[in-house]
Design the sequence.
């Protein structure tokens, strides 16, 4: 069912704006993503608001720290009862392994996914931070690290999803942001794809933020995306 594969990015910073979107969208239709803006502003209360409305939550805090600190943050996320949590693959193999291992002892185990190369970056911005590989090669290197450490999947653009799908089994999930319906603005995203392109490329979950949350009617925007995919 396509609906449950859409994750709406709740990039808002106050409870009123959050509740407006959370209660406009029924949990049967999508999942929700809480990122740094919202979690910094409202903390665990933001997760509680979503859970109270019956939604499953992807806690997108992209942890990147020394292995122990990262692992403890992942454990704290698990204890909030979230459905999915993520870490930056650029934290390295030891950090990824620690994050993966810590979940073994938890009664609730969220899906743990690794962020590869942000969809706002291209080869030029990678060069600025000292990465001379192409985006594709860097994503593949990160994918191998994540898979070796036992992560459940990756965050990657639709462009890379196609190659990764051929390399990894279906249970290694691919989460794709940078999704823009043809009728929406790209904003600051550089490597964008339409929802249809992402699904065809092999993405399991589509992260869509501003085209829905900044629409006059978020539910109507979401329904339109689902209809166009149908
Ligand atoms: O509004 P928009 O659809 O661009 O929102 C995309 C969301 O996905 C944002 O919350 C952003 O932080 C997140 N994200 C991303 N690129 C990644 C990982 C996460 O855009 N590689």
Sequence:
């Amino acid at each position: 069912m396509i609906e449950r594969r859409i994750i709406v990015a709740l990039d808002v910073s106050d409870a009123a704006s959050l509740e407006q979107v959370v209660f406009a969208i029924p949990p049967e239709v999508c999942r929700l993503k809480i990122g740094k803006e919202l979690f910094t502003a409202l903390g665990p209360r933001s997760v509680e608001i979503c859970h109270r409305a019956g939604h499953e939550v992807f806690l997108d805090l992209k942890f990147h720290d020394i292995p122990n600190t990262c692992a403890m943050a992942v454990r704290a996320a698990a204890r909030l009862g979230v459905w999915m949590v993520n870490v930056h693959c650029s934290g390295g193999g030891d950090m990824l392994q620690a994050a993966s291992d810590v979940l073994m002892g938890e009664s609730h185990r969220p899906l743990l996914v690794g962020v590869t190369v942000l969809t706002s970056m291209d080869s030029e911005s990678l060069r600025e931070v000292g990465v001379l590989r192409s985006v594709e090669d860097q994503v593949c290197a990160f994918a191998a690290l994540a898979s070796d450490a036992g992560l459940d999947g990756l965050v990657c653009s639709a462009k890379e999803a196609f190659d990764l799908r051929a390399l990894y089994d279906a249970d290694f999930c691919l989460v794709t942001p940078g999704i823009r319906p043809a009728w929406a603005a790209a904003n600051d995203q550089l490597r964008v794809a339409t929802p249809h392109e992402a699904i065809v490329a092999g993405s399991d979950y589509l992260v869509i933020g501003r085209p829905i949350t900044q629409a006059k009617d978020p539910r109507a925007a979401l329904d339109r995306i689902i209809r166009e995919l149908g």
Remarks:
- The chain has one domain: 2-229.
- The chain has a mean pLDDT of 95.
- The chain has eleven helices and eight strands.
- Residues 9, 11, 35, 60, 115, 118-119, 155, 177-178, 187, 189, 207-210 surround cytidine-5'-monophosphate (CB under 6 Å).
